[in-house]
Amino acid sequence: xxxxxxxxxxxxxxxxxxxxxxxxxxxxxxxxxxxxxxxxxxxxxxxxxxxxxxxxxxxxxxxxxxxxxxxxxxxxxxxxxxxxxxxxxxxxxxxxxxxxxxxxxxxxxxxxxxxxxxxxxxxxxxxxxxxxxxxxxxxxxxxxxxxxxxxxxxxxxxxxxxxxxxxxxxxxxxxxxxxxxxx
Length: 183
Known about the structure:
Layout (H helix, E strand, L loop, with lengths): L1 E11 L10 E2 L2 E4 L3 E2 L12 H6 L9 E5 H9 L13 E4 L11 E4 L3 E8 L5 H5 L3 H4 L1 E3 L5 E3 L3 E7 L1 E3 L4 E5 L12
Parallel strand pairs: 5-6
Antiparallel strand pairs: 1-2, 1-6, 1-13, 3-4, 3-12, 5-11, 7-8, 7-13, 8-11, 9-10
């Protein structure tokens, strides 16, 4: 099942384990690995905290996506944030990323496909970017459950180049849908 489409606003990549990622004209997604040249590319985990626990874990965080609407929300709250600063590889617009179920496939541009694995768990490094930013990307629902707003993570199912302006087609998995959990 396909739901509303969106667009790629920005793409970002860094070969170093830096928190922010510089914007690029294009990125190349590699099947089973992630973003070519990115420090988090690989079949097994590359995030330092996860490597320290178990370096053989599968990398469910090959691609980080954030919705541009989060940047707008944070800017309205007085934060100065822009695409790539919070470590995302792809900034989207027009898709409720946080409302997608686990296993959703995002078709980016002509060929690339990313399968959504879960929510990004925001970390204290956000406060290094700007004090209070970590709290600003966390919230609570009506039942008091924690809401993580810092984007979603995925794995690359099909390779391809992704550029700003590329369309995003959303393909939902078969029901029953499983809500996103942190990965």
